[in-house]
Design brief:
The protein is built from 18 helices and 15 strands. It is an alpha/beta fold and 404 residues long. β5, α11 and β6 form a beta-alpha-beta unit.
């Protein structure tokens, strides 16, 4: 099976500039390719993991990945998929985030002996003369055509700044620069990057007369077309401090029945013939597939020990056999009365007090098997003499203890 066919069968491929040429290139040559990552936070998230999985897979097949960290492009902000302008970051924030990205990505990408490169596009973009840049790059872009790109078109009504309008040119220049310096022939990215990737392919052709290629991958969405990888408290991060392994495991253990096989294909390296057997499961047996999937993706991100721990905790909790030491736990300050609303916010079971109140009003909160029906509900210190566990909905459990 060819590399491209494997990616197709895993439901990863979205669009390409020349699929036949890319397929041939990947099967007959050792290709240098790149994927860009704008460091807008101090951790990668699950959407980035799909890109890293593909980089790792292609590297193991003998190809050479380049991860471009947007030390320059993040100063502008990508308008793709956004209804508002991204938060402006300082150069110090961006450099801080890049260092965290490198640490996380090194778990999946081998950068020894020139097998891969981690490169900051700020190394050239922050030094460029703007007038020279417009003459060298801007001259090859039609404003009329750029405005038809989805990343810009969707922003015209809400307001597209001239700052953001430069983003496509900068990302396109990255491809040209990497082609010149590393003979980089393919750019990969999420499907929301299609317009930007096309810009880079066209710029290289116009400036060098050579053909390079672009290919995008499906975004992680559920059966209703909504993006996955987010909870009420935010993104599913790869950093264990931001999304603890047990919470990470639980998110994937609780995916809808209709989504588990697709997620298994996209996010794990489980062989496709094995996944085909899980796809035959029906009814409650689908939970077996969910458990295997959650374990495998947690093992990839957090290691086997943490995956085993999360699996054991989940089984213990769902079996009703007591409280596990590995259950997510929040320590509370000692007080005579402790508000359930405050507990939900402090534990990040709810992102705000208003959301915590909404959950209570919807009968979604249980404390030690007692349904909470008042937004003014509190616990006394004596309630914490034994374990206090809040259950949100049917599947999310969280333990609370008093400090000291």
């Amino acid at each position: 099976m060819s590399i491209l066919q494997e990616l197709k069968d895993r439901e990863l491929l979205a669009q390409s500039t020349n699929e036949e040429a890319i397929d041939k290139l990947l099967e007959t040559e050792k290709v240098t390719f790149y994927i860009g990552f704008d460091p807008t936070a101090d951790s990668l998230h699950i959407g980035h993991f799909i890109q890293m999985k593909i980089m790792s897979y292609l590297q193991k097949a003998g190809h050479r990945p380049i991860a471009i960290f947007g030390g320059g492009t993040a100063m502008i902000g990508d308008p793709s998929g956004k209804t508002d302008m991204r938060k402006m970051l300082t150069q110090e924030d961006i450099e801080h985030n890049i260092e965290y990205f490198k640490i996380q990505m090194s778990k999946f990408i081998d950068i020894s002996e020139g097998k891969a490169f981690f490169i900051n596009n700020g190394d050239w973009l922050l030094k460029v003369n703007y007038v020279d840049f417009l003459r060298e790059v801007g001259v090859h872009f039609s404003v009329n055509r750029m405005l038809t790109a989805e990343c810009y078109k969707s922003r015209l009504e809400s307001g597209l700044t001239f700052l953001e309008f430069n983003y496509m040119l900068m990302q396109s220049y990255d491809f040209y620069k990497l082609f010149q310096d590393y003979n980089c022939q393919i750019q990969f990215g999420g499907d929301d990057q299609w317009s930007n990737i096309l810009g880079g392919v066209e710029l290289v052709r116009r400036k060098t007369g050579r053909e390079v290629y672009g290919m995008t991958f499906q975004l992680l969405t559920n059966s209703e077309g909504k993006k996955m990888g987010k909870t009420e408290s935010g993104a599913i991060w790869l950093d264990a401090e931001k999304t603890p392994p047990y919470e990470f495991f639980q998110y994937w253990r609780n995916v809808d029945d209709a989504d588990v096989i697709k997620c298994m294909k996209m996010l794990t390296f489980i062989p496709l013939d094995e996944i085909a057997e899980y796809a035959k499961l029906e009814g409650s047996d689908i939970n077996k597939a969910k458990e295997v999937f959650a374990y495998e993706v947690t093992k990839l991100i957090h290691g086997e020990a943490e995956a085993q721990k999360a699996l054991g905790t989940a089984r213990q909790v769902f079996a009703g056999s007591g409280i596990s030491d590995d259950m997510p736990t929040t320590e509370l300050e000692r007080a005579n009365k402790i508000s359930i609303v405050d507990m939900l916010v402090q534990s990040k079971l709810a992102p705000s007090k208003s959301e915590a109140k909404r959950l209570i009003q919807q009968n979604s909160i249980t404390v030690n098997d007692n349904k909470i029906d008042s937004i003014d509900a509190t616990l006394d210190l004596k309630d914490f003499e034994n374990d206090v566990v809040i259950k949100k909905g049917k599947k999310i459990y969280h333990r609370f203890v008093i400090k000291g």
